Structure formats: C-alpha cells, structure tokens
C-alpha cells in the first residue's frame, strides 16, 4: 500500500461459540482477499478466539497471506504465566503476534492499577520484540484509563492530565529522559545569567542527610519576556523512596496549598539517585516575567516513618540558603 504506517485489524476479539477453523479463518480469508485487491502488502491483524487469547490455535492453523499477524490481548491483573506460554508457543511456531490491546487493570478495566505486573509484562514483550497498544483513552471510570476526567480530547496533554496508568504507559512509550546523566551536577549559582523559560531554586528546609521526612523549599521563577500559565510549569523532585510510599504534606505556599497538585510516581526502571519522583503541578494563575509563585514548602515522610538516605537522592543537596538547581526538573509549554 501507499501508506505503510496503516495497520488493519479485522474482527476484534471473537468470543463465545467461535471456532478458528469453522469461523475465524474462513472469515479472515474472505476479508483479506478483498483488502488485497487494493492493498497488496500492508499488515493485517487477525483477531483470535476467547477475547484475543487463542493465539495457540492460530499458530497451529496459520493463514497463507505473507503479511498477517495474530492479535493477543491481556490485562496485567488477570493474565500472567498463561499469557506468556501462549505467546511463546505462537512464536515457536513462527506465528507473528501483535498485542493490540492490554491494560494495567484487570480484564474488566477495573482493579489495580497493577504496575509491578505491568512492568513484568511489558519487559517480556520488549524481550520478544512484540509491539503493543494500551487500553484506554475513553472518558469512563476505569482504573486502566490513561487520562484524568476533563482532559482535552485533541492531544497535547500536560503531565498533570495523566493518571498513574497513563504515566506508566507514557514512560514506556517515550522512555524516561529526565535522568539521563549519572554524573553529579553542580547547581548553578543564584547570580548566573537568566535562562530562557523557567528556573527553580532549592533549599533543604531543615532536613539533613538522614531524616524521616524530606522538606524541600521550591520557589519557581519565570525568565524571559513572556508571561506563563502556572498550570503549565510542573516540577519534579527526584528521590529514593526504597519501596516505602511517601506521604505528601504542604507546610506553606504563598499561592495556597489548595492550589498545588502533588503526585508521587514510582519509576518502573529506577535511575541512579531516584526510584520515585514527586511531581508538583499548579492549578491556575499567570506567572509574569521575572515573577515567582513564592517559596513553596512541602514535606513528605515515608509511610512507615523510616529515614530517607537523602544524600544519595538525585535532587537533594545540603543547602541552608536558596540556590538555583537543575536537579529538580521543570516542564513547561509556552504559547
């Protein structure tokens, strides 16, 4: 075909009293023959029985078309070892498979989010060079939903519009490029030349190298000549939580603690100095050139109130005065 990026999937999730030899294969042969009159070589994906589970049957009785793949569906909270066994069997038989639907929830769309299981499944797919498509972007109350209610339907979503599931999927599609340098950086001095866009300062806030909470102070500044929308400047503070979920607290914010949107995200592939980040978004307001929303003071103890080893954290450095830093990463969208 003239558009090689277009992939066709026919008969999504055949189920109930459906038989490959009797139903799915004859249907696929008929439909594919019609498609091939206009499109001789684009990939066509054929659905498999039991809601996209029966790739073993397809592997035993493959279609003759040279550019056909077979759909395999799974949900992290429902399908485990059996999913891998089916995929491995199909691959051993030379049947190409494409995961055209999977989710971080259970098969109902609810339950979870099962991030540990999702990480295991996605790592498996990567190891086998199997492509995948995540479910879902529908605006309905399912835990597999990638976007928060009210997010635009036209794309261009800020990170604060993503759910925990959506954040996981984004990081696995795009890769986490925020912590690409392992070598330590020296924070820029306060009197350095203004940067274009945004800058952030940091003060340890009284927490030492080992403490049962991290209390950073984080004033953000808008540089340049253009005003900026506060909701478009989320910042990420990177830390080592060691699988002990942090709890968020706001001590003081000149713009009001209720105007902050905090979110902890555990990295599926920990980086040097971080296995978690706190993303701090702001709800509303305009930031004038050279202005700041003020010195935001938050704290986050571990759920078991154990000590953090802050000195090994990516964003931490011991400072009793505010200093500009690049170790707290900023994200912004300029008009």
From TrEMBL:
Q: What's its catalytic activity?
A: Endohydrolysis of (1->4)-beta-D-glucosidic linkages in cellulose, lichenin and cereal beta-D-glucans
Residue ranges of the CBM3 domain?
Answer: 194-335
InterPro entries given in the database record: CBM2/CBM3_carb-bd_dom_sf (IPR008965), CBM3 (IPR001956), CBM3_sf (IPR036966), GH (IPR017853), Glyco_hydro_5 (IPR001547)
Pfam families in the record, alphabetically?
CBM_3 (PF00942), Cellulase (PF00150)
**UniProt keyword list:** Carbohydrate metabolism, Cellulose degradation, Glycosidase, Hydrolase, Polysaccharide degradation
GO MF entries:
cellulase activity; cellulose binding
Region Disordered: start-end pairs: 177-226
Give me any GO biological process, just one: cellulose catabolic process
SUPFAM superfamilies for the chain: (Trans)glycosidases (SSF51445), Carbohydrate-binding domain (SSF49384)
**What family does the database annotate?**
Belongs to the glycosyl hydrolase 5 (cellulase A) family.
Q: What is this protein called?
A: Endoglucanase
Known EC number(s)? Answer: 3.2.1.4
């Amino acid at each position: 075909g003239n558009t090689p990026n277009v992939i066709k999937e026919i008969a999504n999730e055949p189920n109930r009293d459906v038989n490959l030899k009797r139903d799915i294969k004859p249907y696929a042969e008929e439909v594919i023959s019609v498609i091939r009159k206009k499109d001789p070589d684009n990939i066509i994906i054929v659905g498999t029985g039991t809601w996209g589970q029966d790739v073993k049957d397809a592997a035993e009785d493959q279609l003759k078309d040279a550019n056909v793949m077979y759909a395999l569906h799974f949900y992290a909270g429902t399908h485990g070892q059996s999913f891998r066994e089916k995929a491995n069997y199909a691959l051993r038989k030379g049947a190409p498979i494409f995961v055209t639907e999977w989710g971080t929830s259970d098969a109902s769309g609810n339950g979870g989010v099962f991030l540990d299981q999702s990480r295991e499944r996605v790592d498996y797919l990567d190891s086998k060079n199997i492509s995948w498509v995540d479910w879902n972007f529908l605006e309905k109350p399912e835990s597999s939903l990638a976007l928060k209610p009210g997010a635009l339907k036209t794309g261009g979503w800020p990170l604060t519009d993503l759910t925990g599931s959506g954040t996981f999927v984004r990081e696995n599609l795009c890769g986490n490029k925020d912590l690409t340098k392992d070598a330590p950086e020296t924070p820029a001095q306060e009197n350095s030349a203004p940067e274009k866009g945004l800058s952030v300062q940091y003060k340890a806030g009284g927490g030492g190298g080992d403490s049962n909470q991290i209390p950073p102070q984080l004033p953000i500044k808008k540089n340049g000549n253009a005003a900026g929308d506060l909701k478009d400047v989320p910042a990420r503070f990177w830390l080592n939580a060691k699988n002990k979920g942090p709890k968020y607290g706001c001590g003081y914010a000149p713009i009001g603690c209720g105007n902050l949107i905090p979110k902890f995200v555990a990295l599926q592939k920990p980086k040097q100095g971080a296995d978690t980040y706190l993303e701090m978004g702001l709800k509303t307001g305009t930031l004038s050139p050279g202005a700041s929303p003020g010195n935001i003071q938050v704290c986050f103890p571990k759920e078991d109130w154990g000590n953090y080893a802050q000195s090994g954290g990516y964003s931490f450095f011991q400072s009793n005065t505010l200093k500009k830093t690049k170790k707290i990463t900023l994200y912004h969208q300029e008009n």
